[in-house]
Amino acid sequence: MQSAVIVFPASNCDRDAATALAKITGRKPLMVWHQETSLPPVDFVVIPGGFSYGDYLRSGAIAARSPILKDIIKKAETGLPVAGFCNGFQILTEAGLLPGALMRNKGLRFICRPQRLKIVNKDTMFTRAYKDTNEITIPIAHFDGNYFADRETLNKLRSSGRIVFKYLDNPNGSVNDIAGICNKAGNVLGMMPHPERAVDPLTGGTDGICLFKSVLEAIR
Amino acid sequence: MKAIIHIGLKPGVLDPQGRTIARSLSHMGFGSVTNARQGKTIELELDTQDAGQARIDVEKMCKQLLANVVIEDYQIEIIDEKAEEIPENTT
């Protein structure tokens, strides 16, 4: 599987994502600068965490209008698997690939800690490898992780199994404890927690590995 | 031409920053404050003479970038600086 990691000014989890992808897929990902206008041929795209454009205007707002996003949107709409973690999730909502918005944490604090999550939908291309596991612990590190969507959108997400992860003790005020969602077709995932930071027992545990494995198995 | 855009969270969307501001003001003794909403203002300088067109353009800018209409409302003020120019005080 050839993967790509998109790099924006002030991305800071791009290398973590690259390390995780190289470790699990056995192949180094391509690092794609945001000014590129088209993606190289890849099977999976990660939009990494960080503070793209310094979080100016709104977190993810400027990155969502960068040249590479046009091509990502086009290809995601025809089925290319795309995952956004943290700032990547914010960028995907700002780009309109995922519904809702990420607002300032309810407690007005930057939260950085291991976070227990419930896997709500294990039948997605991002979660199938979790098999018998229902609860995982993945680090979170964000100021704007308070997920919001209107009632109609929430009903749609719920009834179509698009809520993929929920927080077990909601850290940021997210509506319905939502930590991660996918698009209607199931090929675009956005989540605030950082699975790329949970691929080594030495640093942050290994509960993130199965997410990348799931994608790898789905693509094979 | 100048456009001033006020952007704020929609009514019904929780604004924890606004709430904290209100609480702080009331702790300071400003007992009349019952609520606060925090927003932002963006000022644009526009190279056009057509106020109508300016409003149409700024409306598009708000929808496409400046506001996130999922959670935010916006108000646009168009200011024609020439029409508003105050004569220089010569006294």
Largest sheet strand order of chain B: 2-1-3
Judging from the principal axes of the Cα atoms, what is the shape of chain A?
A: globular
Poorly predicted tracts of residues of chain B:
none
- The CATH architecture name of chain A reads 3-Layer(aba) Sandwich
Which percent range describes the beta-strand content of chain B? 25-35%
Q: Total strand count of chain B, please?
A: 3
Measure the end-to-end span of chain B.
29 Å
SS content category of chain A: alpha/beta
**What portion of residues of chain B is helical?**
25-40%
Overall spatial form of chain B: elongated
Summarize the main sheet of chain A: 9 strands, mixed
Number of helices of chain A: 5
Return residue spans of chain A where pLDDT drops below 50 for at least 5 consecutive residues: none
Structural description of this entry:
The complex is a heterodimer of chains A (220) and B (91). Chain A contains 5 helices and 11 strands. In chain A, the strands form 2 sheets. Chain A has a 9-stranded mixed β-sheet, sandwiched between helices. In chain A, strands 5-8 form a two-stranded antiparallel ribbon. In chain A, helix 1 packs across helix 5. By secondary structure, chain A is of the alpha/beta class. Chain A has a single domain, classed as 3-Layer(aba) Sandwich (Rossmann fold). Helices cover 23% and strands 25% of the residues of chain A. The model of chain A has no long low-confidence stretch (mean pLDDT 97). Chain B has 91 residues and is α+β, with helices and mostly antiparallel strands. Chain B has one domain: Phosphoribosylformylglycinamidine synthase subunit PurS (Mth169, Chain: A). Chain B contains 3 helices and 3 strands. Chain B has a 3-stranded antiparallel β-sheet. Chain B is elongated and about 50 Å long. The two termini of chain B are 29 Å apart. The mean pLDDT of chain B is 90. Classes of the chains: A alpha/beta (220), B alpha+beta (91). Chains A and B meet through loops of A and helix 1 and helix 2 of B.
